[in-house]
Design goal:
Shape: globular
Distance between the termini: 17 Å
CATH class: Alpha Beta
Number of domains: 1
Helix content: 40-55%
Oligomer: single chain
Strand content: 15-25%
Bound molecules: flavin-adenine dinucleotide
C-alpha cells in the first residue's frame, strides 16, 4: 500500500500563511525522500493562497511541484467546490504546458461538466483521481441522486481507461469497486495504469479485500493541527458524513 499526505487546512488569506504551508510541503517532500516512504502529496489551491490571488497561488503551486520533481515525487491537486473547478483545471493545464508531468488533478463524478472536462483531459494523457465529490452543489450543476452519480463515475472511468490515462479510483463504495474491476477487465487496463484510493480509517475490510485481490491502493492521510476546523467544515458541507461517524461509533464497524 502507498499513501498520499494532506496537510489539513483550506482558505488561506495571508501570504505568510501560504508561504509557511509551502515550506511545510517542501519539508514533507524531504522527509518522504529521506525515509524512502511510498507517498506522494495532495494539495489544495485555497490553502496555497488562491483567495489572495490566483496568480500568487499558481506561483506557490509551481514551487511545490518543482520541489516534488527534484525529489522524484508527484503532486495531486485536490478538487474543491465548484467555484474552484475551472481555475484548478486551468492551473493544472498550465503546469503541463510548462512541461511538468509529475502533477495530477481530480474529477468529481457528480458535476455535469465532468464529462467534457474528462474528454479534454484525456487529450493531455492526464493523471486523474476520480471521486464522487464531497461538497454540496446545486441540482443545476450536479447530480444529486446516488445512482446517477454512480453512473457518471462509471462512464468517466471508462473514458479515462479507454484512453490509457492513469486513474486513481477514489471510492469506498463497493458497487463502484466492483464496477472498476469490471472496467479494468473490459478495457484491458494494466495494473500499472490505475490505483484504488481510500481515506485513512474508512472501510478497512474493503481496503484489505482490494489489496488482497492484487490491486494497488493508496491511502489518503490527512494530518496537522487544523483537524477540528476541518472536520466541522466538512460536516457543514456534507452532513451525511456525520451519519457515517455516528454509525461507525455505534456499531464499531468501519468495514
Ligand atoms: C482518496 C480520496 C480522495 C478524495 N479527494 C477528493 C477531492 O479532491 N475532492 C472532492 O470533492 N472529494 C474528494 N474525495 C471524497 C469523495 O468525493 C466522496 O465524497 C467520498 O469518498 C464518499 O464517496 P464514496 O465514493 O466513498 O461513496 P459513499 O457511498 O459516500 O460511501 C460508501 C461508504 O463508505 C463509508 N464512507 C465514505 N466516506 C466516509 C467518511 N468520510 N467517513 C466515514 N465513512 C465514510 C460509508 O460507510 C459509506 O456508506 C476523496 C475521497 C477519497 C477516498
Amino acid at each position: 500500500m502507498t499513501a498520499t499526505l494532506d496537510i489539513l487546512g483550506e482558505d488561506v488569506y495571508e501570504q505568510s500563511a501560504a508561504e509557511s504551508i509551502r515550506n511545510e510541503w517542501i519539508h514533507v517532500l524531504d522527509e518522504i525522500k529521506g525515509h524512502q516512504l511510498e507517498s506522494n502529496i495532495s494539495v489544495k489551491l485555497s490553502q496555497l493562497g488562491f483567495r489572495i490571488d490566483p496568480e500568487y497561488s499558481f506561483g506557490i503551486l509551481r514551487s511545490i511541484v518543482t520541489a516534488a520533481r527534484e525529489r522524484g515525487n508527484f503532486v495531486r491537486v485536490d478538487m474543491e467546490d465548484s467555484t474552484m473547478t475551472s481555475a484548478t483545471l486551468a492551473q493544472y493545464r498550465r503546469l503541463r504546458a510548462e512541461g511538468f508531468d509529475n502533477v495530477g488533478v481530480v474529477i468529481q463524478a457528480y458535476l455535469h461538466r465532468s464529462d467534457p472536462d474528462v474528454r479534454d483531459l484525456v487529450k493531455l494523457g492526464a493523471n486523474v483521481r476520480l471521486c464522487k465529490g464531497i461538497y454540496r452543489e446545486s441540482p443545476e450543476i450536479a447530480y444529486q441522486d446516488r445512482d446517477e452519480i454512480r453512473r457518471s463515475f462509471g462512464l468517466l472511468m471508462r473514458v479515462l481507461m479507454e484512453h490509457g490515462c492513469y486513474v486513481g479510483i477514489a471510492t469506498h463504495d463497493e458497487y463502484l469497486v466492483d464496477k472498476s474491476y469490471e472496467l479494468i477487465q473490459k478495457t484491458g487496463t494494466e495494473k500499472s495504469r490505475y490505483e484504488f484510493q481510500m481515506l485513512l480509517g474508512v472501510r478497512e475490510q474493503l481496503r484489505a479485500s482490494i489489496v488482497g485481490a492484487g490491486h494497488r491502493l493508496r491511502v489518503y492521510v490527512p494530518y496537522g493541527d487544523q483537524w477540528y476546523a476541518y472536520s466541522v467544515r466538512r460536516l457543514k458541507e456534507n452532513p451525511q458524513i456525520a451519519g457515517y461517524v455516528v454509525k461507525a461509533l455505534l456499531t464499531g464497524n468501519n468495514s
